[in-house]
């Protein structure tokens, strides 16, 4: 959400974890700590017999008052308390968890290590996978830019001799022989000893594990073939996608802004409103020009030429007045949600929230009136 809002605001989207800034994920840390030692946190168990990692649930189970959970500041404080417990009870891994707080640091780790333990969360379970990263020169997905590693439960020797097409077919099978290290999403990467202790790796001969890792690490051609297969799969997937248009703000990961455009961001924000409109022509990326016009429409509409103003207003109207089920909140959906909440709070005799809903309803009506004749 932060990245999309920065993108729409003509600001660098990745500033929170671009060097030298770092950002981690408390949920990843909690899941990783639990995978190492399930006694680290008390958890509720759901109907599928899986541990529940929702913040309110973790807080309640570990003795923290979660009555006001879901407000931003309160949730932040609860997160600090949960992470504090993990740091206190599992001090040997805490610093290791934090080492993957930006993409560059993460890539340095898996390019250097011949065997790692990767924590992943699938189907409600936090699991540890013993992996061998691909050859350090060819270990990053050519399209998605994520690290790639071989799961060491796999028999590596037959894989090394496969053609690219054979590798593509093998990638469709389960269990997966290839693991993805989401370098920009604060993955949990641990010492090999943690993976060695869990099934199915603890049943394998440690010398066999080392042999497999050595084969992966030293076979440059094999790693190149893996990346070629991954590129072809990504291209095939892209071609098979629906050609239906997506909104500009949803396209942040489909096409990155150029360095030239990014360099213009500070000047655009520093300029007066009239100058901002002129500067939009300097952007190569049409999405940025569109975002800029909408910002001016909201903040300084008098700056816009009359026809441009009407066009932007009409575009917004088509979206918010849509009668279809959309990916965003429409006027119709807003009224529906307000009515549902009215029923709930009326039954609870909550006058304060009923008053707030009346005010919210009036506000939505004012937006509807503004745009229905656009």
Name given to the CATH architecture of the largest domain? 2-Layer Sandwich
Averaged pLDDT, please?
Answer: 94
Strand residue percentage: 5-15%
Low-confidence stretches: none
The spatial strand order of the largest sheet comes to 4-3-2-1-5
Q: Specify the number of helices.
A: 17
Shape designation: globular
Q: The CATH topology of the largest domain, please?
A: PX Domain
Helix percent reads 40-55%
Count of the domains: 2
Description:
This protein is of the alpha+beta class. The chain has two domains: 91-239, Exonuclease ExoI, domain 2 (PX Domain, 2-Layer Sandwich), CATH 3.30.1520; 259-371, no CATH class. 53% of the residues lie in helices and 7% in strands. The protein contains 17 helices and five strands. A five-stranded antiparallel β-sheet has the order 4-3-2-1-5. The model has no long low-confidence stretch (mean pLDDT 94).
């Amino acid at each position: 959400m932060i990245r999309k809002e920065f993108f729409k605001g003509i600001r660098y989207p990745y500033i929170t974890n671009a060097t030298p800034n770092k950002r981690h994920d408390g949920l990843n840390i909690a899941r990783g700590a639990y995978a190492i030692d399930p006694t680290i946190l008390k958890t509720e168990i759901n109907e599928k017999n899986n541990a529940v990692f929702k913040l309110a649930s973790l807080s309640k189970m570990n003795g923290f008052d979660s009555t006001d959970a879901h407000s931003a500041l309160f949730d932040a404080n609860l997160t600090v308390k949960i992470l504090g417990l993990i740091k206190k009870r599992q001090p040997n891994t805490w610093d290791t968890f934090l080492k993957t707080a930006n993409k560059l640091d993460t890539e340095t780790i898996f390019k250097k290590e011949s065997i790692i333990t990767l924590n992943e969360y699938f189907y409600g379970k936090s699991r540890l996978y013993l992996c061998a990263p691909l050859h350090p020169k060819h270990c990053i997905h050519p399209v998605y830019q994520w690290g790639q590693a071989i799961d060491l439960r796999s028999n590596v020797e037959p894989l090394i001799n496969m053609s690219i097409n054979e590798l593509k077919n093998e990638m469709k099978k389960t269990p997966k022989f290839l693991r993805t290290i989401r370098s920009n999403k604060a993955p949990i990467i641990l010492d090999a000893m943690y993976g060695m202790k869990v099934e199915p790796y603890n049943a394998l001969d440690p010398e066999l594990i080392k042999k497999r890792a050595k084969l992966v690490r030293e076979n440059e051609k094999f790693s190149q073939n893996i990346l070629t297969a991954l590129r072809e799969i990504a291209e095939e997937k892209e071609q098979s996608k629906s050609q239906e248009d997506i909104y500009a703000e949803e396209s942040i990961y489909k096409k990155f802004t150029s360095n030239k455009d990014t360099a213009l961001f500070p000047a655009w924000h520093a300029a007066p409103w009239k100058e901002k409109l002129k500067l939009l022509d300097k952007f190569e990326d049409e999405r940025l020009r569109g975002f800029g016009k909408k910002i001016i429409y909201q903040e300084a509409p008098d700056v816009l030429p009359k026809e441009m103003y009407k066009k932007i207003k009409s575009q917004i109207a088509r979206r918010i007045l849509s009668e279809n089920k959309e990916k965003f909140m429409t006027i119709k959906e807003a009224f529906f949600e307000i009515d549902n909440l009215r029923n709930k709070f009326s039954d609870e005799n909550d006058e304060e929230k009923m008053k707030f809903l009346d005010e919210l309803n009036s506000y939505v009506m004012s937006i509807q009136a503004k745009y229905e004749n656009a």
